[in-house]
Specification:
The chain is built from 6 helices and 7 strands, in the order ααβαβαββαβαββ. It is an alpha/beta fold. A 7-stranded mixed beta sheet has the order 3-2-1-4-5-7-6. The longest helix is centred in the middle third of the chain and has 13 residues, at 78-90. The N and C termini lie far apart (47 Å). It binds S-adenosylmethionine.
Length: 206
């Protein structure tokens, strides 16, 4: 007997449907201001190979590419990949600084050890909380030895997700096993809806 196909947050179709029907409240229409500020700061990591996890429509990808990083936007939703591709093309950065993978992040083991850095923004809060430990090990595996996970966490308190609730304690306790904290601070230039509820961290893979 054929089973009805279940649409859940673990499935690309679930997310793609939101993009196609323009129900994307997480998309702020520009690169995240705290990332813009971080990249201009003396603490910014030097340009190298970075992947943007769950890249969405590619605002942060474009910013990294314009700042000379070799960036790969990874997302399993075709509409997200198409929107990011369009941004890279318009900027003339496609295939030189901007690359794309339309794949499930939990299933790209051939890229283990490939990236210098990973950028995480509203991805952790988008996955089913039961996968969080797997996520920590997955991102550690994708990084080179000593590679860095640079993240803008939205510390959101929600009854159901996505976004699923995320606290500073959740992050520190989960990532402690594989990462060391280089820096962590509350940005002062979050968008109004997230003011005081964001945390920027740079974690180094142990
Ligand atoms: C809440 S959105 C955030 C998008 C983007 N980072 C932003 O801040 O605008 C989460 C994104 O992750 C993607 N995504 C969720 N689970 C995924 C998975 N397992 N593999 C790849 N992409 C995934 C979704 O398609 C969606 O584009």
């Amino acid at each position: 007997m054929q089973q009805a196909k279940q649409l859940t947050v673990d499935k690309a179709d679930w997310w793609d449907n939101l993009y196609r029907t323009k129900r994307t409240p997480w998309d702020i229409g520009k690169a995240s201001p705290p990332l813009v500020t971080y990249l201009k700061s003396p603490y910014a990591v030097p340009p190298a190979k970075i992947a943007v996890l769950g890249c969405g429509t590619g605002h942060d990808c474009l910013l990294f590419a314009k700042n000379n990083f070799e960036v790969t936007g990874i997302d399993f939703a075709p509409s997200a990949i198409a929107a990011t591709h369009e941004k890279f093309e318009k900027a003339g950065l496609s295939g030189t600084k901007g690359f794309l993978l339309q794949r499930d992040i939990f299933d790209i083991h051939e890229y283990d050890g490939y990236y210098d850095y990973l950028w995480e923004h509203c991805f952790f809060s988008a996955i089913d909380p039961s996968r969080r430990r797997t996520y920590v090990y997955t991102v550690a595996d994708l990084l080179k030895p000593g590679g860095k996970l640079i993240s803008l966490w939205w510390l959101v308190d929600s009854k159901s997700g996505p976004p699923f609730s995320v606290s500073r304690d959740d992050i520190y306790s989960l990532f402690d096993e594989r990462f060391t904290i280089d820096m962590a601070y509350k940005p002062t230039d979050s968008i109004p809806e997230r003011k005081g509820a964001e945390l920027l961290t740079v974690l180094t893979k142990r």
